[in-house]
Every structure is written in C-alpha cells, then in structure tokens.
Design brief:
Length: 347
C-alpha cells in the first residue's frame, strides 16, 4: 500500500535585465517566459549520472545489495534517534496533507440502485513523510512560505517511489536519510496546519482518505508539443478556396490598428499541454485493494500511468446531490470526516 502527494510547481520569471552605463544602472523591462525546462537553481541535483560500464549482471546485483545494506545501516541508526510527533486534536478547518498516486485508467463502478459511475483508478504508491517545517521557519526561509505562513500553515514534504540509493547523489540521499527512509524519485510538499503534522518516516496509506470525501486532483496534462492556432486555440482558419493561398491554417492578423503592436496574451502558435492543472471537488467512491492499493475517484487528469497529486480538500464530505441541485453553498451542508489519527507501524 502506498500514498501520494501534491506539489505546486513554481516557475521563475525574469522580469528585468540590469545594465551598467558609466557606473549607473538602468532597468529594461523584458517579458518573461511562462514555462521553464530546468528546475529551480536551489534544488539539489538528484542524479549524479555515473555510468556502470563493463559490469556483469552479477556485479551489478552485488553493488546494489552492498549499497542498500550500507544505506540501511545508516537508516537504522537514524530511526533510533527519531521522536514521533504527539497526536493532536482534530479541529474544524484543519488542513491535512494529501497523497501522490499513479493513474491506472478508468473503470465503471455501479451504485446500489444500478447507476453506473465512471471512476478513475489511482494506485497509491509508497508515500513516506520526509520532513516537516513549522509555519514560523517556513515563513522566514521561503517565498511560498510567506504566503502560506500568513494562514499559519506549515510544509509537509512527502517522497514517493523508492529506488536504489546508488542512483542518487549524496546530497539528495541526505534529504531522506534524516527521515530514515529510502531515497525517492519524486518529492512533493503540502501546506498543512500544525495539528495535522505527521512525524518524518511515517508511511501513508490509502486509508488516509475515507469513501465519500471530496479531494482536489493536481496533475500534468498531455504534452502535445508545438501546435498551431487551430489545434491549440480552436481557431476556424482561413477559407479553403476563393483566392486563399497558403494561409488556410494561419491565425490571420495579430496586430492592432491603433497602437500598432501585438497585445500581451494574444493567442499564438506554441507549445500545447504539459501544464499543471487542478480538478477540484472529486468524490472518493471506492478504496479497495487490487494489486497494491488503489483509490477510485470519479475523474482525474488525462494522462494514464502518470503521477498525480491529490491534496486533502478543505471541502471534504459533501453529498452528491448537493452539486446537482442549484443551491447556494453553505457551511452547514458540509460534513467533515474523521481522519486517521494512528498510522500503522513503519514499513
């Protein structure tokens, strides 16, 4: 059984270029890129890129076992010194962490009255809590923390998908060694209230959620690559005949007559897809053990076998009929489920 978590990606924007002229400075405003292909510079490089050449399968297996044994010896020493967080009282308005899972596909589920509901199966991976940062520290040391810290929220980081320690750099392994878990391929952070903090090294399962709760799904959309305006924005295009030559799929005029410029935000050809998108208010219909631990939800992102982030929604358990009826939202219509307070022993 496994878990999943949500990350809000932040992309850096270059707002100005500074130039020096005779000892002085002037700032030239430039338009920043919306999408970056490189991670932030403060991230620790996970992979060292070493090549294992001229090694037999037996040699590779021996190195894996030896490296894993050395790492687990260090983990055992760390686990003996760790202290668990004392359990705190669940209150209305508390924000818990979510899970990170892999989308398996869609499968119809049938209600007791015979109604068919198309659900998306999510495989809950091996999610372990890596670290927790209190609101005060997060507010001082992070730009995101300065926004979330105003709401008195801390940061809970979860790692997903354990892998061979030899694949990662020593600095990256150190992030997980402090928590006493194996290195993970993916990291994600959640904004949580202090009373919902979980001790590092704790494994989260699918019972972190309850059937009937509503969650928010974060994930990447399908990457379509470079597309024209007809595919990317749904433009009609130019006529096929009557004097039209080589402009059948072109956007047409992009400028303006008054200002003689291209307005910011003009719909142009470009990269389509591979964007972080969120679908809010999806109901958990089924939690059942299939191959490992899967979570059935009514809808999710588009790409199969991709990692999606499922944070714990503020609006948790709402009746399905509430969304079908055109009734104004009221907190009296919301019922909060009791989360899991005691987690299983460390795995």
């Amino acid at each position: 059984m496994n878990a999943f978590l949500a990350i809000r990606s932040t992309c850096s924007h270059r707002l100005t270029d500074s130039c020096t002229i005779r000892g002085g400075f002037f700032f030239l405003q430039v338009r920043g890129t919306r999408r970056t292909t490189s991670p932030p510079r403060w991230w620790i490089q996970p992979y060292h890129g070493y090549l294992r050449e001229n090694l037999s399968p037996e040699g590779v297996s021996f190195l894996q076992k030896a490296g894993l044994e050395l790492y687990m010896n260090k983990v055992a020493a760390v686990r003996t010194d760790q202290q668990s967080f004392p359990p705190k009282q669940w209150e209305r308005g508390s924000v818990r962490c979510g899970l990170v899972c892999r989308k398996l596909g869609t499968l119809p589920q049938y209600m007791r009255d015979g109604t068919s509901v198309i659900c998306t199966l999510l495989q809950v991976l091996d999610n372990h809590v890596v670290s927790y940062t209190d609101p005060e520290t997060w507010y001082k040391n992070s730009y995101v923390g300065k926004k979330e810290g105003l709401r008195r929220l801390g940061r809970l980081t979860i790692g997903v998908d354990s892998a061979d320690p030899q694949l990662f750099t020593a600095a990256y392994r150190g992030l997980f060694l402090k928590a006493g878990v194996l290195p993970k391929r993916k990291l994600a952070s959640f904004a949580v209230t202090p009373n919902a903090a979980v001790a590092p090294g704790t494994r989260l399962y699918a019972n972190h959620f309850l059937v009937g709760q509503y969650v928010d799904i974060w994930g990447h959309t399908i990457d379509h690559g470079f597309q024209g305006v007809m595919v990317r924005w749904g433009f009609k295009g130019m006529p096929k005949t009557h004097g039209v030559t080589k402009t059948h799929r072109r956007p047409g005029a992009i400028g303006t007559s008054g200002d003689a410029c291209v307005k910011p935000g003009k719909k142009m050809p470009g990269h389509m897809g591979n964007e972080w998108r969120c679908i809010r208010g999806l109901q958990t219909e089924l939690i059942k053990l299939f191959y490992e631990n899967s979570l059935g939800i009514t809808a999710i992102s588009e790409l199969s076998h991709s990692l999606v982030n499922v944070p714990f929604s503020m609006v948790l358990v709402i009746l399905r009929e509430f969304f079908r009826s055109k009734v104004a939202f009221s907190l009296k219509s919301v019922t909060y489920g009791v989360p899991v307070g005691v987690y299983p022993s460390r795995v």
